[in-house]
Amino acid sequence: MKKVAILTDFSKSAWNALFTALKLYENFDVLFYIVHCYEPAFGGILGNRSKERLAIIYESLSADSTRQLGEMDSYLKKHHRVKGHKFETRSLKGNLVDTLSQMLIEDDIDLIVMGQKGATGASDVFIGSNTIKVIKKIRNCPILAVPEAQDLKDLDRIVFPTDLTQRIRECQVSILHELALAWKSRLTMVQVTQEAVPGVDQEKNKQRLKEAFEEVDIHFKTVEMKQSVNASIGAAVKEEKADLIVLIHYAHTFLERLVREPVVKKMAHHTDVPLLVLPQKDC
């Protein structure tokens, strides 16, 4: 059974991320963890009796988190009766990245799903989009970032940008392989390059990808980099009419050094297509 952690701040964006995950895994056996992390903004609780104030605030946040998670759980049990789908709620106190990192280890999570735009409004609690923070700090678990306006109907076309300079191992792309097979997706590897002729290592890595995705409808496309990597990827995504973008989060790739672009971060900020960020693994 797959284990998917869906982060929520109870916003419209978070609900949309949840529905996207349910659709994406409609034919899988999955235990979905609905996770809410809460932590107060400390600016408003400093001063005398700050410990007492902090305790009261945490108690209030905990009660509100538990209540809203309970409402989500009740809604899902009533309206989402898909065989093989199970739900658990988690109300976690503390820093988002720290508490999430601990949960990944304890519960052996396969995927994190987040909305790309958080809640807004008058509040003294730290809210808003934490997607970039999680992508930057969590490097041992795949992360799916879902734009607020996204309404996933199908996973017909997947675009996977790469410069082919790094060897992509099967264990790195196992989650992508499963989804592509389940949805019978067309997978297009988009190579953004400034070089007219690919190197020997790039050709070897291309062949390895063909072998890793032997059962998948895989294609390769070379795109010349013009203004920026992100602009080139964006053009390819639009041309392919992609339903999903996939990137591997290498620490410092040749491509990133070449153009001084934090590619993963920029794509997460600007894409209107769901973005699946895969961790770099030594396997």
Describe the structure in your own words:
- By secondary structure, this protein is of the alpha/beta class.
- The protein has 2 domains: 2-146, HUPs (Rossmann fold, 3-Layer(aba) Sandwich), CATH 3.40.50.620; 157-279, Rossmann fold (3-Layer(aba) Sandwich).
- It is 39% helix and 23% strand.
- It contains 9 helices and 10 strands.
- It has a 10-stranded mixed β-sheet, with helices on both faces.
- It is globular.
- Residues 118-128 have low confidence and may be disordered.
Please tally the helical runs, counting DSSP H or I stretches of 4 or more residues.
9
| Helix-strand category | alpha/beta
By CATH, the architecture of the largest domain is named 3-Layer(aba) Sandwich
pLDDT averaged over residues: 83
The CATH topology label of the largest domain is Rossmann fold
What's the CATH first level of the largest domain? Alpha Beta
Low-confidence stretches: 118-128
Q: What fraction of residues sit in β-strands?
A: 15-25%
CATH superfamily of the largest domain: HUPs
Tell me the overall shape. Answer: globular
Order of helix and strand elements from N to C terminus:
EHEHEHEHEEHEHEHEHHE
Strand order of the largest sheet: 3-2-1-4-5-10-9-6-7-8
Radius of gyration: 20 Å
Q: How many E-type strands? A: 10
Counting structural domains, the number is 2
- Which oligomerization state do the chains in this entry correspond to? single chain
